[in-house]
Amino acid sequence: MIELDSITKNLLKQIAGLHKIPDGAVSFRRNGKGEIIRSTAHIEIKKKEDNPGINIYVHSSCQNEACHIPVVVTNDGIFDLVYNDFYIEDGAKVTIVAGCGVHSGSSSGHNGIHTFHIGKNAEVTYIENHLALGEGKGKILNPTTIVNMKEGSTMTMNTTQIGGVDFANRKATANLKENALLTINEKILTASNNIAKTDFKVNLLGQNSRCKIVSRSVARDKSKQVFKSNMIGKNLCFGHVECDGIVLDNANIDSIPRVSARDNQASLSHEASIGKIASEQLVKLMTLGLSEKQAESKIIEGFLK
Amino acid sequence: MLELKNVSYKIVEQGQERVILDDISCIFDNNCLTAITGHNGSGKSTLTKIVMGIVRPTSGKIFFDGKDITSLSIDKRAKLGINYAFQQPVAFKGITVKDLIDIATGEENTTDKACEILSKVGLCARNYLDRDFDKTLSGGEQKRIELALALAKSGKCFIFDEPEAGIDLWSFEKLNNLFDSTKCNIVVSHQERLLKNADKILVLENGKISKYGDSKQVLKSLGSAYCEKLKEEV
């Protein structure tokens, strides 16, 4: 059993809801080093030979099992780069809880490059939370996700940047075959001088492939956010992008959802809205007894829930 | 008891001053259901919004149980016991019906308690508690939940702005039963059926009180043609 200091415990709690290293399939990485790798009968985790990172093999026999792969950076000046490849066999059902927490007094960060190979009719829920704490400036998190989905597979990707990250460049590319279904829910909160960029690209290749992207963001102070997505329909397919932003103080949000039809059977739509908190929402909650500040917090909390 | 003394509200539109409410003085009693009526644009909603603090009067004073509340914010008035149900409910992303009930009551409610609150407005509560209070709910559902929220918050004065609008699937009788006769109830309405149920009626015309008194007498003096015309304005 490894020792967890209070900073690590706090990060684990916030990024993965964990109070300790959990049972079951686990890879725990701290300050650039894999500290725990544990496989189960249905989920095999192996350290990569050529690159930093792990290969995760989820067997068809895995039905509703969870796999935790948290990363924490608590030392200053560490820029961790990791390649994690996920091989999900046909028909497997798995929940993968990733996430990265940084707590440092100076610059440090983590670049995670995750590649998913999802087999036929497999079901994947992928949760990644990003958080940075501590006084230091220059906390950087650059998650890249590549998803290859075979026929009939589904993936739900919930990606959240909770706060404190000075710079983030979040990229995801997905390729969907026939009847595959991808749902991406992104939630981002920036403050201070944080910069957060998102760039999603989804190729709807197979017949009846479907994708829905919902992005909700709140930008405070002088922070900047840029959301870009491109959904490309190359068959009879359905895609929808929805991005809502709340902009406060002197913050900036750019929202650029793009849909591209490369087949006359593609059905694609997008909607984007950016604005301050609606005054009637504040007023309503104030009539129920909340102060203006409490009402604002409640609206943001709900929006990013 | 709620008292308005010489309340006026003026705005400037295209360089011209426009009087929305003109020197309104009136008392809304406890243990009383007072209906405010009048043609569209007569200042009914503005009057109730001034009571809640949503709109600030240009001049005049508002007293609640003898306390001058004219300068108090909306939430401070809410804490004193003034409750408000909007004509058009406000939708929220990510805030559930249960969240709003908890905010209204100021505590986390058990599922049973929250269900009890919603069942008062005729909703099969368990189906609604975890739903976001947004446009996925029908207009009628939103409206009934809006009423339930105003009733769930403890208070002394309950203001309902056109509570009947959009709840046609529900009965007037049930709506009438919602009003607690021991409180100070103020209802903005165009509907004769609701006006008949009131103890008193206040009629606004062009921002002024034209009639205020016992509901039977006011209705009689207004005449049925006036009430028919009001109904058409809904």
Tell me, what is the CATH class of chain B? Alpha Beta
- Strand order in space, largest sheet of chain B: 6-7-8-3-9-10
- Tell me the total number of β-strands of chain B: 10
Largest sheet of chain A: 9 strands, mixed
Name the helicity range of chain A: 10-25%
Strand content of chain B: 25-35%
The CATH topology assignment of chain B is Rossmann fold
Question: Overview of this structure, please?
Answer:
The complex is a heterodimer of chains A (305) and B (234). Chain A has 305 residues and is mainly beta. Helix content of chain A is 10%, strand content 58%. Chain A has one domain (6-278). Chain B is an alpha/beta fold and 234 residues long. Chain B has helices at residues 44-52, 74-80, 97-105, 111-119, 139-152, 172-178, 192-197, 215-222, 224-232, and strands at residues 2-13, 16-28, 32-38, 59-64, 67-68, 82-85, 157-161, 184-188, 200-205, 208-214. At the A-B interface, helix 2 and helix 3 of A face helix 2 and helix 3 of B.
Overview features:
heterodimer, A: 305 residues, mainly beta, 9-stranded mixed β-sheet, 6-stranded parallel β-barrel, 3 helices, B: 234 residues, alpha/beta, Rossmann fold, 4-stranded antiparallel β-sheet, 9 helices
Write a brief caption for the model.
The complex is a heterodimer of chains A (305) and B (234). Chain A is mainly β.
Topology at a glance:
The complex is a heterodimer of chains A (305) and B (234).
Chain A: H1 6-16, E1 25-30, E2 33-38, E3 43-47, E4 53-58, E5 63-68, E6 71-73, E7 79-88, E8 93-97, E9 100-103, E10 108-118, E11 123-133, E12 139-149, E13 154-163, E14 167-176, E15 181-190, E16 195-204, E17 209-219, E18 224-233, E19 237-247, E20 252-261, E21 266-275, H2 279-287, H3 292-303
Parallel strand pairs in A: 1-5, 1-6, 4-7, 5-8, 6-9, 7-10, 8-11, 9-11, 10-12, 11-13, 12-14, 13-15, 14-16, 15-17, 16-18, 17-19, 18-20, 19-21
Antiparallel strand pairs in A: 1-2, 3-4
Helix pairs in contact in A: 2-3
Chain B: E1 2-13, E2 16-28, E3 32-38, H1 44-52, E4 59-64, E5 67-68, H2 74-80, E6 82-85, H3 97-105, H4 111-119, H5 139-152, E7 157-161, H6 172-178, E8 184-188, H7 192-197, E9 200-205, E10 208-214, H8 215-222, H9 224-232
Parallel strand pairs in B: 3-8, 3-9, 6-7, 7-8
Antiparallel strand pairs in B: 1-2, 1-4, 4-5, 9-10
